UniProtKB/TrEMBL annotation:
Keywords: FAD, Flavoprotein, Oxidoreductase. This is GMC oxidoreductase. Its cofactor is FAD. It comes from Herbiconiux ginsengi. One of its GO terms (molecular function) is oxidoreductase activity, acting on CH-OH group of donors. Residues 18-100 form the Glucose-methanol-choline oxidoreductase C-terminal domain. Belongs to the GMC oxidoreductase family. The keyword Cell membrane does not apply.
Length: 129
C-alpha cells in the first residue's frame, strides 16, 4: 500500500492561523499560578475510565462483556470511556469508539431478529425501527 499525502496552500494557511490563535489564547490565559505545578499529577485527566468497565467474565468486577453488553441483560449495551477497564497512557476517545463499534454487529443482529419476529397485526409486516 502506498499513501501519498501533502498539505495544500490552504491547509498550511489554516495551520498557521491555528498556531496564531493558540498563541493568543495562551497569552490571554497567562502564566501558571506561582507555586502551582505546570505538570498535572498522573490520573488527573478528565477522560475517566472504568466506571462501567468491561470484563471477560461476570465475576463481579465488571459491568459488561467485551462487546459492551451488560451482564444479565441481552439487549442492554453501554458505551463510552467508562467501558475501558483502566486508565490509558493516551487519549481514550479512539479506544472508546473502537469498543462501541465492536458492539454494533450484535446490536444490529438483535434488532434484525426482533424485527423479523415482531409483526404488526394490521399490516402483517415487521414494524419500522
Amino acid at each position: 500500500m502506498t499513501i501519498a499525502f501533502e498539505y495544500s496552500a490552504a491547509d498550511l494557511a489554516l495551520v498557521a492561523e491555528a498556531r496564531r490563535s493558540q498563541a493568543r489564547a495562551g497569552r490571554a490565559l497567562g502564566e501558571f499560578d506561582p507555586g502551582q505545578s505546570a505538570v498535572l499529577p498522573a490520573g488527573s485527566s478528565l477522560h475517566y475510565t472504568g466506571t462501567v468497565r468491561a470484563g471477560a467474565v461476570d465475576d463481579g468486577t465488571s459491568v459488561c462483556d467485551p462487546e459492551s453488553r451488560v451482564w444479565g441483560y441481552d439487549s442492554l449495551f453501554v458505551a463510552g470511556n467508562g467501558v475501558i477497564p483502566t486508565a490509558l497512557s493516551c487519549n481514550s476517545t479512539l479506544t472508546a469508539v473502537a469498543l462501541a463499534l465492536r458492539s454494533v454487529p450484535l446490536i444490529l443482529e438483535r434488532v434484525s431478529r426482533q424485527a423479523s419476529i415482531a409483526v404488526a397485526p394490521e399490516t402483517g409486516r415487521p414494524p419500522q425501527i
